[in-house]
Amino acid sequence: MSDIAYQNKDITLKYFADTLIDKSLAVYGLPHIRIKDCRPTNLPAIEANELRLDNLFILEDGSWFAETRSMPNPTPRRAREARRAQGCGKICKLHSQDLKAFHLIIFSTDIGEVDPDIMDVGCMQLKIEPAYLLGIDTEEVFRKVQDKIKNKEVLGDDELLELIILPLTVKGREEKQALAEKTVELAL
Questions:
Q1: Number of domains, the chain
Q2: Is residue 172 part of a domain?
Q3: Per-residue pLDDT reduced to its tens digit, 65-101
């Protein structure tokens, strides 16, 4: 099999973001969060720093929800999340004057528990809503999807999302790559 882009989960989830409208984030362990709409995350001008967000959604209560996925990174986490929050604010401002927003970070299994209050500098507090993929039973999810495909059953939206994020549920870059290839082969 030819190489699969390391960012395959980011690419796929960005492409299918609209399919999450009217769905909950139960697959991430957050069934209480339901998505009402999806907005583009591209900024209109090129900037020298990275303000990348994976997806931006409007929730049922009207608040904004910026979603990113986090894996081990040499950049200090507080600085990285502050830049992401800045990007979230800029993008929300493009779409609305109401900046009631929160930031969900989905942590791969390479990252254990983190403090959701990651920054307090007096005039500004940055809090995140963490979701951990550590508790997902990788083999059980794979087997369940494999059985449905084998029985020629249609996969539901939750199962498709589980299949997309499945490589993030194992530790290590090589293991993630191997599982990404295995899930692609399963989908073929």
A1: 1
A2: no
A3: 766 666 555 555 666 666 666 666 666 666 665 556 6
